[in-house]
Amino acid sequence: MASAFRAFLNSPVGPKTTHFWGPVANWGFVAAGLADMNKPPEMISGNMTAAMCVYSALFMRFAWMVQPRNYLLLACHASNETVQLYQLSRWAKGNGYLSEKKEEAASK
């Protein structure tokens, strides 16, 4: 067990590298998005949420392409992408962007 921990500690994606601490810090975005789920949709910034979606999508690709592959960063940004897309859908519904088709179908 000690040798496995030592191998992780000294690995190219271990806690002695930015490949570890960058994703750990980025989990704060996920936590903030989860905390914001209880807030009303009127408080969501559509521009910022869309920017976070683009940011996480780009960094998911980066995490997959970088050598060695950074699965911790990939998981972090996949989680953030999911949370931010949900927040974006809440914002869109709150502003009437996703309910227009239902209203048009009801009026016909």
From TrEMBL:
Question: Where does it mainly reside?
Answer: mitochondrion
Gene Ontology CC entries for this record: mitochondrial inner membrane
Name the species this protein comes from. Answer: Acacia crassicarpa (northern wattle)
Q: Which InterPro entries match?
A: MPC
Q: List, in alphabetical order, the GO biological process terms annotated in this UniProt record.
A: pyruvate import into mitochondria
Keyword Metal-binding set for record: no
* Family to which this protein belongs: Belongs to the mitochondrial pyruvate carrier (MPC) (TC 2.A.105) family.
Q: Please give the superkingdom of this protein's source.
A: Eukaryota
The role this protein plays is: Mediates the uptake of pyruvate into mitochondria.
Q: What protein does this entry describe?
A: Mitochondrial pyruvate carrier
